Amino acid sequence: MRKDLQESEMRMWLELRAGRFCGIKFRRQKVIGKFIADFASNDPKLVVELDGDTHTGRDTYDAARSRHLEDQGYRVVRFMNSDVIGNMDGVLERLTEVVVDMGYSPLPTLSPEGERA
User: Fold this and answer.
1) CATH superfamily of 20-101
2) Where exactly are the transmembrane stretches of this chain (predicted)?
């Protein structure tokens, strides 16, 4: 496990940590079986993987890794580092679609005036 995060990992972690994304509690570098997932939640069972240049030519490995995580009951979503850095809104929108597709209800957007508005 690494202590130093890449820029894309730090940006994604800032969006996912402490229930900030749809109220879902994610863990960073979660051990699942023989693999370490970049980010994972237990409810819903979701793994978010970030792929960079180091994943070029590793399609077979990544597919086997995803299959193993799916066998553990997780849904695996992969994003390119460049997308996280250059299009975080699009990444979060896609991630929201996945969460809704899994049957998980994102937290409602609260009125800026508060609950009495």
Assistant:
1) VSR Endonuclease (3.40.960.10)
2) none
